[in-house]
What we know:
With 328 residues, this protein is of the alpha/beta class. 31% of the residues lie in helices and 21% in strands. The strands form 3 sheets. The chain has a 7-stranded parallel β-sheet with strand order 10-9-8-11-6-12-14. β4, α4 (113-120) and β5 form a beta-alpha-beta unit. The longest helix has 16 residues, at 3-18. The radius of gyration is 23 Å and the shape is elongated. The protein starts with a helix and ends with a strand. 41% of the residues are buried.
Amino acid sequence: MTQQEIDIMYMRRCLQLAANGLGRVRPNPLVGCVIVKDGHIISEGYHQEYGHNHAERNALLRKGDYCGATLYVNLEPCSHYGKTPPCADLIIEKGIKRVVCCNDDPNPLVAGNGFRKLEEAGIEVVRHVLEEEGRELNRRFFTFMEQRRPYVILKWAESADGFMAPISQSEQKEQKESSDSSDGSDCNKKYWLSSQRQNRLNHRWRTEESAILVGSETYLQDSPTLTPRHYLGPAPQPVVLDRRNRLTDVPPHWLHLHTKTVEETLQALYEQKLQSVIVEGGRQVLDAFIESGLYDEVRVLRSPQTLGSGLKAPEVPGTAPERLIIID
């Protein structure tokens, strides 16, 4: 194998390790680290939890001789004191000879300083190996840092013929009571279209994002909890958008927004350091995000049931992001 092929192979392992931190390290990026010496992996690590050791530190603090080794990491090593000491300093201290990296860190506190510190210490630095794959893995982080807004996921459930709900509340209640819902006594009305498998997937998605947002109408009609009841993992920050100041009983742990536009809403979430948000509707809120163009991904849970009439599901324009996921 060529050196380039070897670097790609170990970087893929870094990305694989980094993905294990999804939902647990936010607002930090997902980072994995692999240390190779004499053609063998001698240590690995990944960032496991926000506020705890970074990937490089988890790998380098394991007992071993790292002098002369190559360290693979998918994001530029930090060079500043935050929750933990600088990883670049530890890399130098341990005698690493070569560092291969996937992505530059856009954080102004790093932004090239990590690489500079390593090179000044005589360490060879190779950059941009599997760069696009790295950006895809950390798309939430890069959107937050570069566009100064959360990564936005629009999500809804719809029938096979494209409706979100029956035409009336009485029909909705009747359909819901006759459906095979997995939510039990804590079932939100809008989830009756989803299968048990789709519900579990939906709740897994919740554990992976920083926040989940509904509008005031959904809040009033469904009394949602927005928790990942059917999947083990961290709960997102619940957010309700109350543009008309209709709500008086919002729990204190919810983020209660009175913003008027999508831009204002995303700015408020950014100021709360919420790196990503699932927008669960209803239709008016979803349409506002679609019309603004300020979204990155669409996820649709499609039921085999047909309704024939009712509230139409949103339409995704041809200019929508490439990340359109339909789960039947």
